[in-house]
Write a structure and sequence with these properties.
The complex is a heterodimer.
Chain A (H helix, E strand, L loop, with lengths): L1 H13 L11 H7 L18 H15 L4 H12 L14 H21 L4
Chain B lengths: L1 H26 L5 H30 L6 H6 L6 H6 L5 H22 L5 H25 L23 H29 L5 H32 L10 H26 L3 H24 L12 H25 L15 H33 L7 H21 L10 H26 L6 H18 L7 H23 L1 E7 L4 E4 L2 E12 L3 E11 L4 E4 L2 E5 L4 E5 L1 E4 L3 E9 L6 E9 L1 H23 L1
Antiparallel strand pairs in B: 1-10, 2-3, 3-4, 4-5, 4-6, 6-7, 8-9, 9-10
The chains are: A mainly alpha, B alpha+beta.
Chain lengths: 120, 623
C-alpha cells in the first residue's frame, strides 16, 4: 500500500517535469541497473518502461542534481522502498551466509584437493 | 475425441511403467534374452503411447479444438500455424508432456544402444528411469492434464502470450528439455552402475555420450534463450541473472564438471564416487529447475504458468528421488573401487580437479544466489533481491585464476609433469597478454580495478587456445570447445567495456546527436498483420561515411491484449546496432533506446563453437 501511494505521488510529480527532455545521464543508467522495478516481473528499473520505472529514473536524476552521491541515493531508496529494491544485498546478519557460503565451499574444496594430491 | 485418445494413451503408458517396475526385481537375476525382449516391447509400447498423446495434443492445437482446456487457454484461431504448433509446449501442461515424451524416447534409445552391457546394469537403469517416468505420468494426469475437456465448447480461445510467439523461443524449450532429460539417463545409469558395482571404465565410456548429448543440448538451449532475451525482451542485454536463466545454468556447470571427470574415469580409473555424486547432482538440479520454474516461487519475467499445488507435487517427487539416491549412494558406496592412484600436483588429473572446484564454486554462487532469497523470505520474512551486482562481485574475481588454469591445465601430462616446462613458452604469451591488455584498455580509456587482470587472463587463454591448434597431442574437439570458451569470455568483456547506449524521448522528425552519429526519427507507419497491429518506426543512423536505417516495431496483439516492442538489430562482424522504441503517455513522444554493441555476434558464435566441439567428439567416436 505504501508503495502504491508513493508511486502515485511520484507519478503526480512527473507531470511537473517535461518528459520530452533529453537523455538519461550515464549515472542514472548505472544506478537504475541495480534497482528492481517493484511492479514488474523480474526486471530492473533500467530495463523497464513502466510508469514506476520512468518515475524512478526521474527521481534518481533529481537526487543526482541535488548533489547526492551513489550511496546516499541507494540509502534513500532503501529507506523508502525496503531493501528489496536493490539487486546488491548488503552484508548483515541475515545475508552474511549468502556472501560467505560459496567462498567457504571453495576453500573447503581446495583443501580437499590439496590433501589428495602429493606435492612432490 | 482427441482428449480421450490423449488420456487413454497416457493411462496405458502409466500401466506399462507399473508393469516394468513390478517385473524388474524378478528379472534382475535372470540373464535371459527373452526377458529383456519383453521389457523392450513394454518400453516401445510406452513410447508409442506417449508419442500418440503428444501428436493428439499437437493436432488439437492445429485444428483449434477448444473442447480441450489447454488449447482454449493458450491458443486462438487467428494465430499463425507455426505458433499454433509451438503453442503446444508454450504452456505448462504441454511442456510437461514434452518432458515426458523426451524422457521415454531417451529411454528407448538407451535400451537399444546399451545391448552389449550387463543385464543387471540395464534393468536397474530402466527401473530408475521408469520410476521417473511414472512420477511424471502421475504428475501430468492428476495435476496438469493437457487433455481436460471443456463443456460447453467455447467458440474462441484466449490466445498465447505474444512474447512467446517467436521463432527462437518456439524451439528453445524442446532443445533445453533434451538437455535436462538427458541428465535423467545419467542419473539412473549412475545409480544402476553403483548398485551393480560397475562404476568403471566401461561405464564411463558408455555414459560419456549421454553426458555430451545433454551438455550440447543444454548449451544450445541456453544460447537460444539468450538470443531471444536479447532481441525480444528489448533490453539489449543477453543475460540478466534472472532466476529462470540461472536454473538452466546450474546443470550446465555440473555437466561440464561431470564431463571432465568422466574423461579421467575413462582414461585413468579415478574419481569414481565423485562422478556418481555429480551425476546425481546434475539431475537433481535439472529437476529442481523444473520445480522452481513451474511452481511460481520465482519472481521472474519468464514464469508464464504457475500453480502452488503442482509445486508441492514436484517438490515431494524431487525429495523422494534425492533421498532415494542418497540412500543408495551410502549403502553401495563401498562397492566402488577406491584405488586413488598416486597423483602429483602438476598433472592433468589435478587440472581436472581444479576445473571441478571452480565449476562447483560458480554453481554454488548461482545456486545460493537463486534460492537464498526464497528461504530468507520464508524463514525471516526478510525480502532481499539478488541480482547482477552480486553475481559479478563473486564470480569475476574467481574468473581470473580460472582462466589462467584453463590455459595451463590441458597442456599438462598425465600423472606427473615438470613445473619448469610450463614457464618457458607460456611466460612469453603471458607477457604478451599483459602488453595487449594494457594497450587496449589505455586506448579505450578504461581503468576499472578488475579490468586489467581480467583482460590479461582472458587474452592469455585466447592466445594459448589458438596456439594449441598447432599441438598434435590433444584432440580437436577439445581445442575447438576451449577456444570457443576463450572467445566467449573475450567477446563478453569487450562487449561490456565498449558498449555505448543512448536513450531519449523523441517524436517524428526529431534529430539527436550521439557520439559522432546522428539519430533521425524519420517516419512512423501503422500496418495490420494477422493477429496484431504494428507501429513501425523508421530511424536513420548516420555518421560521416555511411548511414543505416533501423525499423523497430511496437506490436499490439489483440488475443490476449499485449503490447510488445520488437527491436531492430543490424549485425555486422564488428558490432550490432540495436534500436528499440516504446510508446509514452505524452502525446507524440516515444522513448527511443539506441545501443551500439561491439562483438555481439561473436558471443553467439563462440557458444556455437563450444557446442560444436562436443558434437565433433560424438561424431568422431561413432563415425
Amino acid at each position: 500500500m505504501k508503495i502504491k501511494i508513493l508511486v502515485l505521488i511520484i507519478f503526480y510529480l512527473i507531470s511537473f517535469f517535461n518528459l520530452s527532455h533529453g537523455a538519461n545521464s550515464e549515472k542514472v543508467d548505472q544506478i537504475s541497473k541495480n534497482l528492481r522495478c517493484l511492479i514488474c516481473q523480474g526486471q530492473s528499473v533500467y530495463d523497464s518502461q513502466s510508469d514506476f520505472a520512468l518515475s524512478m529514473k526521474i527521481l534518481i536524476q533529481n537526487k543526482i542534481d541535488e548533489g547526492k552521491n551513489d550511496e546516499q541515493i541507494y540509502d534513500f531508496l532503501k529507506s523508502k522502498y525496503g531493501e528489496w529494491i536493490v539487486y546488491d544485498p548488503e552484508i548483515r546478519k541475515n545475508t552474511v551466509l549468502l556472501w560467505v557460503l560459496p567462498l567457504i565451499l571453495f576453500v573447503f574444496g581446495g583443501i580437499l584437493i590439496f590433501r589428495k594430491v602429493s606435492i612432490k | 475425441m482427441l482428449n480421450q485418445i490423449g488420456n487413454y494413451s497416457l493411462y496405458i503408458a502409466l500401466l506399462s511403467s507399473i508393469l516394468i517396475i513390478i517385473q524388474s526385481p524378478t528379472l534382475l537375476n535372470q540373464n535371459n534374452i527373452n526377458v529383456s525382449g519383453r521389457i523392450f516391447s513394454l518400453i516401445s509400447i510406452q513410447s508409442l503411447m506417449i508419442i500418440i498423446s503428444f501428436i493428439a495434443l499437437i493436432i488439437a492445437f492445429i485444428i483449434s479444438d477448444f473442447s480441450n482446456e489447454a488449447v482454449y487457454t493458450n491458443s486462438h484461431t487467428s494465430k499463425p500455424l507455426f505458433y499454433k504448433i509451438t503453442g503446444t509446449w508454450g504452456n505448462h501442461e504441454g511442456s510437461l508432456l514434452l518432458w515426458l515424451l523426451v524422457l521415454s524416447i531417451f529411454l528407448l534409445i538407451f535400451t537399444i544402444t546399451s545391448k552389449n552391457l550387463s543385464n543387471k546394469y540395464r534393468i536397474l537403469t530402466l527401473l530408475f528411469q521408469e520410476i521417473i517416468i511414472a512420477g511424471f505420468l502421475l504428475f501430468i494426469l492428476f495435476t496438469s492434464n493437457p487433455f481436460m475437456s471443456l463443456f460447453p465448447i467455447p467458440n474462441e480461445g484466449t490466445g498465447l502470450n505474444p512474447i512467446l510467439q517467436d521463432p527462437a523461443l518456439a524451439i528453445h524449450p524442446p532443445i533445453l528439455y533434451l538437455g535436462y532429460v538427458g541428465t535423467s539417463i545419467i542419473f539412473s545409469s549412475s545409480l544402476a552402475a553403483l548398485i551393480s558395482g560397475s562404476v568403471n571404465k566401461t561405464w564411463a565410456k558408455h555414459i560419456k555420450n549421454w553426458v555430451l548429448v545433454s551438455w550440447i543440448f543444454l548449451s544450445i538451449g541456453i544460447l537460444l534463450g539468450s538470443i531471444w532475451a536479447y532481441y525480444e525482451l528489448g533490453w539489449g542485454g543477453f543475460w540478466f541473472w534472472d532466476p529462470v536463466e540461472n536454473v538452466s545454468l546450474m546443470p550446465w556447470f555440473c555437466l561440464t564438471a561431470l564431463f571432465h571427470t568422466i574423461l579421467i574415469l575413462e582414461k585413468r580409473e579415478m574419481f569414481h564416487s565423485w562422478a556418481v555424486i555429480l551425476s546425481i547432482t546434475t539431475f537433481s538440479l535439472s529437476m529442481s529447475g523444473t520445480f522452481l520454474v513451474r511452481s511460481g516461487i520465482l519472481n521472474s519475467i519468464h514464469t508464464f504458468a504457475n500453480d502452488p499445488s503442482r509445486g508441492v507435487f514436484i517438490l515431494c517427487f524431487l525429495f523422494i528421488l534425492i533421498t532415494l539416491s542418497i540412500f543408495i549412494y551410502f549403502f553401495y558406496q563401498n562397492k566402488i573401487k577406491n584405488n586413488f592412484t598416486k597423483t602429483y600436483i602438476v598433472s592433468k588429473e589435478t587440472a581436472v580437479l581444479v576445473n571441478n572446484l571452480f565449476m562447483m564454486f560458480f554453481l554454488s554462487v548461482v545456486l545460493i544466489g537463486t534460492v537464498y532469497p526464497i528461504f530468507l523470505e520464508v524463514v525471516n520474512n526478510d525480502k532481499i533481491s539478488v541480482g547482477p551486482p552480486f553475481y559479478h562481485k563473486l564470480i569475476v574475481p574467481f574468473l581470473i585464476p580460472f582462466l589462467i588454469f584453463m590455459a595451463i591445465g590441458p597442456n599438462l601430462n598425465w600423472i606427473k609433469d615438470k613445473i619448469n616446462k610450463i614457464n618457458l613458452q607460456q611466460l612469453l604469451f603471458f607477457i604478451l597478454s599483459i602488453i595487449i591488455s594494457f594497450i587496449f584498455l589505455k586506448s579505450v580509456g578504461i581503468s576499472y580495478l578488475f579490468s586489467l587482470p581480467l583482460f590479461i587472463a582472458s587474452i592469455f587463454l585466447f592466445l594459448i587456445t589458438i596456439k594449441n591448434f598447432s599441438v598434435k597431442k590433444t584432440n580437436l574437439s577439445q581445442k575447438i570447445s576451449h577456444f570457443g570458451f576463450s572467445l566467449f569470455i573475450l567477446s563478453v568483456l569487450v562487449n561490456g567495456v565498449l558498449a555505448k547506449e543512448y536513450s531519449s524521448n523523441m517524436k517524428v522528425g526529431d534529430e539527436r546527436k550521439f557520439l559522432n552519429k546522428t539519430i533521425k526519427f524519420e517516419s512512423l507507419k501503422v500496418y495490420e498483420s494477422k493477429n496484431y497491429q504494428s507501429l513501425e518506426a523508421n530511424f536513420k543512423i548516420s555518421d560521416k561515411n555511411n548511414s543505416i536505417n533501423l525499423k523497430p516495431e511496437v506490436r499490439v496483439y489483440d488475443q490476449p491484449q499485449t503490447i510488445t516492442s520488437e527491436a531492430d538489430i543490424k549485425s555486422t562482424l564488428y558490432s550490432d546496432n540495436f534500436l528499440v522504441f516504446n510508446i509514452l503517455k505524452n502525446d507524440g513522444f516515444y522513448n527511443v533506446r539506441y545501443q551500439i554493441k561491439p562483438f555481439m555476434i561473436w558471443i553467439w558464435i563462440s557458444i556455437i563453437l563450444i557446442s560444436f566441439g562436443g558434437i565433433l567428439s560424438i561424431v568422431k567416436k561413432n563415425g
